Automatic annotation (TrEMBL):
Family matches, as CDD domains: Tudor_SGF29_rpt1, Tudor_SGF29_rpt2
Localization terms from the record: Nucleus
Region (Disordered) location: 78-110
Organism: Ostreococcus mediterraneus
Keywords: Nucleus, Transcription, Transcription regulation
UniProt keyword Methyltransferase present: no
Domain SGF29 C-terminal, first and last residues per copy: 121-264
Statement: the UniProt record of this protein carries the keyword Chaperone: no
PROSITE patterns: SGF29_C
The protein's name in its UniProt record: SGF29 C-terminal domain-containing protein
GO annotations of cellular component type: nucleus; SAGA complex
Taxonomic superkingdom: Eukaryota
Lineage, opening ranks: Eukaryota, Viridiplantae, Chlorophyta, Mamiellophyceae, Mamiellales
Residue stretches of biased makeup (Basic residues): 94-103
């Protein structure tokens, strides 16, 4: 455009004047296009800002609901959260438990990932689900307490009986037939929205670390909420687990803990 002949220049030819006019129109068209693009970007930025504000408002409401749930469980939010907004990882006290580890030295099975769904009712259990099974009543009679991690292989609604096998891959696959009251489903998810946390002092059955056997315990610290909206580990105090230093506090995964039902 700088080399184009000015329309007011002496001796300007008609062809030069046409070139100047064409270039001027192109510049005006480009200016209009750039203005439209700039205005569109401003509009999109305003829409993004409104979207962020809306999501922030929803998140604030969810946080209020979550804090209320924690308070209802007797958890002090200010005490439970550290400086970065998440619970600090618990460092468990590991005491020697020779007799229990020696008697139940089987490796702890991996809990498979299930599709999350609310409730742990008997009617929701399916073949392949992991459960706590009191096999002690079969060999020692009513009142016996020998709970193991088992896998459901069959359920007979008419009899109200479950057939389960030991979940330990190295164990003999003996089929146990147990009434419903001796079978407790393990949590299928650790999702905060679809799971039940237990407050301090709750009596539970929990898989003792490095075994596939359940023992009675009490909750010392409820499971902490993790950044991914799932529960982490409980801190538990198992019965008869003390030594010269007192009761041992042990960390147990959320999905290895169930409510202790005294009728079982």
């Amino acid at each position: 455009c700088a080399t184009a002949t000015s329309a007011n220049a002496r001796g300007a030819r008609q062809g030069d004047l046409d070139q100047v006019k064409t270039l001027r129109e192109e510049i005006e068209n480009l200016h209009s296009s750039m203005t439209l693009i700039a205005n569109e970007k401003i509009r999109l930025a305003q829409m993004a800002l409104e979207l962020v504000k809306g999501n922030a408002a929803v998140l604030d409401e969810e946080l209020k609901t979550f804090h209320k749930e924690l308070e209802e469980q007797g958890i002090n939010v200010e005490d439970e959260l550290d400086g970065d907004g998440y619970g600090a990882p618990y460092q468990p006290q590991y005491h020697h438990k020779a007799h229990r580890v020696q008697q139940h030295s089987r490796p702890q099975p991996r809990v498979p990932d299930y599709v999350a769904r609310p409730g742990q009712e008997v009617s929701s259990m399916e073949v392949g689900d992991l459960v706590a099974a009191n096999v002690g009543v079969l060999s020692h009679g009513a009142g016996a307490q020998e709970w193991i991690v088992a896998t459901v292989t069959r359920y007979s609604p008419s009899e109200g009986v479950f057939e389960v096998v030991d979940a330990d891959e190295e164990a003999e696959k003996h089929v146990y037939r147990l009434p419903q009251k001796y079978v407790i489903p393990l949590p299928k998810t650790a999702s905060v929205r679809q799971s039940q946390n237990f407050p301090v002092g709750t009596s539970v059955l929990a898989v003792y670390p490095n075994t596939t056997t359940f023992y009675k315990a009490k909750v010392v610290q409820p499971a902490r909420r993790l950044p991914n909206a799932e529960y982490g580990e409980f801190v538990l105090e198992f019965e008869d687990d003390g030594d010269a230093d007192g009761q041992a506090h042990r960390a147990v995964p959320f999905r290895h803990v169930v409510l202790f039902q005294r009728s079982n």
